[in-house]
Design a protein that fits this description.
Distance between the termini: 59 Å
CATH class of the largest domain: Alpha Beta
Radius of gyration: 21 Å
CATH topology of the largest domain: TIM Barrel
Helix content: 40-55%
Strand content: 5-15%
Number of domains: 2
Number of helices: 14
Largest sheet: 7 strands, parallel
Shape: elongated
């Protein structure tokens, strides 16, 4: 006898997509389930159930044989086999360590939506963060110079801020007052250390992550000067993926940038700029030796997912494991702080 399930077809499809992303499965597999969820969303539960009973659910564009099985089982109140299998495979802790620290994280300061190079709408990212129990999530789409990632001009960013307001208003109307989507940016650090967005727009944001995305092979003295200038900027809160390295993944590997880490991290301490522990498995940035150096120099840290899809929001597990292994005091990790304390630090 099939196990009972009361989540409904859309919840089942969304959860499968989340688990596939969490398990770093191929994107095309995820897309099939998200597309099916979007296809049946306008129909309503009664029509979906009627189509299941009539055997016509696959006539809906976007619903294939595999997704139809999930929809049919969930509509009958049964746990879909595909969902059960994925829960067993990808539903548990992602790491062997770090669970105690992971439980202390209240949010995530680095995530992307389909406004830049993410794959999902702002609302989907926010809903997933809320479902994960986050108190806050910072939306940090790219800045304009990163054209390959569809970076946001000042005008597009201005429009995005109104969408964030609308999402928060919608969540509040649903009684979700414990969660807030915060306004942010992953702003490019330009060659001279200046920032790739206007001061006026940066001042309108809650949190600002600054990252190097270009000329990663810049000479060590010039890269050091560039990064020190950025982290000393009073508008910068977090230094993102500081070395820019890639240790694995579809994009291949990439050597880390060369800079005087002691000088950069000392500037971070003096400016109260947090060093990001980027949780993406293909980055593991900063490397362990630099993570320990930043720890010893007294840096603040932010454990961030750098999520480009909903399931990747749970990559915080990987960063928590590394931070815990390095013996970093949780109170030095800014996203263990309550929202009010975080915002006071970010805008002091």
């Amino acid at each position: 006898m099939a196990e009972a399930y009361d989540g409904g077809p859309i919840a089942a499809l969304r959860r499968i997509g989340f688990l596939l992303e969490r398990g770093r499965e191929e994107t095309y597999k995820v897309r099939a389930y998200r597309n099916a969820a979007a296809a049946i969303l306008p129909l309503g539960e009664d029509e979906v159930r009627a189509r299941v009973e009539a055997g016509t659910i696959t006539e809906i564009p976007g619903v294939g044989a595999s997704t139809a099985k999930v929809i049919s089982a969930a509509a009958r109140g049964e746990l879909p086999e595909r969902l059960a299998a994925l829960e067993a495979e990808h539903g548990g802790p992602l790491t062997a360590g770090g669970e105690e620290l992971w439980n202390q994280l209240r949010g995530d300061l680095h995530s992307h939506s389909d406004w830049s190079d993410g794959g999902s709408p702002i609302e989907e990212m926010a809903f997933t963060a809320m479902e994960l129990g986050h108190e806050y999530q910072v939306l940090t789409d790219h800045s304009p110079r990163l054209t390959v990632a569809n970076g946001l001009s000042a005008e597009r960013l201005r429009k995005q801020l109104t969408v964030v307001d609308a999402v928060n208003e919608h969540l509040s109307s649903r009684g979700s007052g414990t969660f807030t989507l915060l306004k942010g940016i992953e702003v490019d650090i330009l060659d001279d250390g200046s920032l790739d967005q206007t001061d006026e727009m940066l001042d309108r944001l809650d949190v600002r992550v600054a990252s190097v995305h270009s000329k990663l092979k810049m000479d060590k003295p010039d890269m050091t000067k560039r990064m020190v200038a950025a982290v000393r900027n009073p508008r910068v809160n977090v230094l993102g993926h500081c070395t820019g390295r890639m240790v694995m993944g579809a994009r291949g590997t990439r050597q880390q940038s060369q800079f005087d880490a002691k000088a950069v991290f000392t500037a971070c301490v003096e400016s109260k700029t947090a060093v990001e522990i980027n949780s993406r498995p293909e980055r593991r940035d900063p490397p362990t030796d630099l993570l320990e150096l930043a720890r010893d120099l007294g840096c603040l840290f932010s454990i961030d997912s750098d999520a480009h899809a909903p399931g990747q929001l749970d990559f915080l597990w990987y960063g928590a494991e590394r931070a815990e292994a390095a013996g970093i005091d949780p109170d030095r990790i800014v996203n263990t702080w309550p929202r009010e304390r975080l915002l006071a630090w970010a805008n002091s």
